[in-house]
Amino acid sequence: MQRTFLVVGVSSCLQAWLGHRYPIADGPAGSWVSIFVILGQVGMHQGQRAADVLQILEGGLLVAGLLLFFLGVTGLVHRILRIFTPLVTGTFLLILALQLSGVFLKGMMGLQGAVSRPNYITATIAFFVFAMITVLSIKGKGWVKSYAVLLGILCGWILYAVFGDLSHRSSSTSLVQLPELFAWGTPKFDLGMTLTAILFTFLLVANTISAISAVQQVAPLSQESEKKVLTRSIWIGGISHMISSIFSTIGVVPLPASAGFIRLTGQKKVKSFLIAGLILAGISLIPSIVNFISLIPGPIANAALLAAFVQMIGISFQTLLRESLDQRRLTILGIGLLLGIGIMFLPEIAFNGIPASLQYVLSNGLLVGTLIVIMLEQLWKE
Fold first, then answer.
1. Above 80 in pLDDT, residue 352?
2. Phi/psi of residue 254, each to 5°?
3. Domain range list for the chain
4. Cα–Cα distance between 139 and 255 in angstroms, integer?
5. What is the distance between the terminal CA atoms of the chain, rounded to a whole angstrom?
6. pLDDT band at 166 (very low <50, low <70, confident <90, very high)
7. Vertex 24: Cα angle to 18 and 221 (nearest 5)
8. How far is it, in rounded angstroms, from Cα 205 to Cα 86?
9. So where does this one cross the membrane (predicted)?
């Protein structure tokens, strides 16, 4: 938690200061989470030590970071920019929202880890928080609308403390504690992980384009060309990935969900965002504060995220409708959604027996759906 707070705070500030220059929060990438999980499962079946798997993941983060930095600094990212049409970006945002909705709902109902039955008290509180944030963001006036998410989290936390089961974590006795470098050990480089990191770099580019495009719709703060904004954001993203590797965290990326929070709260100021990022990075050095924040109940946090993703669904449709949806585009969209979302319902054993590098790709519905739309758009010309 400490290292993640630091990396998220530093990366968000770098992007808002030198990168895209929008109030877009960085955070652990869902695509990297899936790679961590899949590689962990494969490594366990192959008898690998957990430490070895984590060091291979550190190497993969470094490879992705170096490639992103190279694409941004050389401007080569412009050559692949034309493939990210509104249809591709809109499909990415829509599949992302639908994929994470299942994760958020499970979290709201307390279905995490080995738990197989929902906790109905927890679920009731979480759905109340979801409804509260949604209503306040629509009907609220002034500061109430701006702080709808924070008010919902605080209210839900209080209710959870009264009716739920708050867990307590022991806090560190030291006032200030510096984060550990390469906490998982020295990075290791694996051919399968390297190939996967190279392929996932293009998904990370798509993620960045989607985040910038979504936020530009709700906070048009700059008149700069999209190429300049993207170039800066990509090479800063490379630096963020290298920082993620150094501090042993999941790779961080600009979160498209930021557009939903901006629309919910109406807050668009970059200076305030920079201050918040610096505060978050500073908080990471104080163990007692990190411990307190980590006590936020998972169901309440998931309810707040789901409320933001209500806006994400709308933004994805707005992106898709930037071009007319003729028969060709509707067919491509349908194929991408059906196959991408369909993969989410396949059992984990469906991809057993194939190389690990392919498992990373084929088991990720977001990646498969986006790649299918990209290929069909390029091969099936108007």
1. no
2. -60, 130
3. 2-379
4. 26
5. 49
6. low
7. 75
8. 14
9. 59-81, 87-108, 120-138, 144-163, 191-214, 234-261, 273-294, 300-321, 330-351, 357-376
Tokens encoding 145:
């609308």
Q: Which two structure tokens, joined as six digits, stand for 373?
A: 């739309």
Give Cβ neighbours of residue 319 (< 8 Å, ≥ 6 apart): 86, 89, 90, 93, 210, 213, 214, 217
pLDDT at 169: 56
Question: Percentage of the chain with pLDDT > 90?
Answer: 38
> In this predicted model, what pLDDT tens digit does every residue of 13-22 receive, in sequence order?
999 999 999 9
Conformation bin of residue 207: beta by default, left when phi > 0, alpha when psi is -120 to 50: alpha
- Please give the C-alpha separations between residue 321 and each of 136, 182, 316, 368, in angstroms, as whole numbers: 28, 45, 9, 22
**Helices (H), ranges, 29-119:** 30-45, 50-74, 77-81, 86-108
Q: Are 204 and 64 in contact (CB under 8 A)?
A: yes
Hunting for tokens 């990212």 — which residue is that? 77
32, 218, 320, 367 from 214: Cα distances, Å = 21, 7, 11, 19
The more confidently predicted of residues 175 and 123 is 123
**CA nearest to 34, candidates 301, 359, 294:** 359
Burial 288-314 (b: 16+ CB within 10 A, else e): eebbeeeebbbbbbbbbbbbbbbbbeb
By residue count, the chain amounts to 382
The token pair at 73 is 């600094």
Query: Mapping DSSP to helix (H, G, I), strand (E, B) and coil, where does residue 297 land?
Result: coil
CA distance 312 to 319: 10
∠ CA(323), CA(326), CA(330), 5° rounding?
Answer: 95
Tokens of 160: 């959870």
Instruction: Write the burial class of residue 345 (CB in 10 Å: 0-12 exposed, 13-18 middle, 19+ buried).
Output: exposed
Going by C-alpha positions, the residue among 259, 260, 283, 287 that lies closest to residue 9 is: 283
Q: What residues are paired with 254 via a beta bridge?
A: 26
Residues whose CB is less than 8 angstroms from the CB of residue 317 and which lie 6 or more positions away in sequence, other chains included = 90, 94
Q: What is the DSSP string of 240-257?
A: HHHHHHHTT-PPEEE-TH
Q: Which of 7, 75, 5, 6 is nearest to 241 (CA)?
A: 7
Checking DSSP bridges between strand 26-28 and strand 252-254, what pairing results, if any?
antiparallel
Could you tell me the sign of the dihedral formed by the alpha carbons of 172, 251, 12, 256, in that order? Answer: negative
The predicted model scores a pTM of 0.75
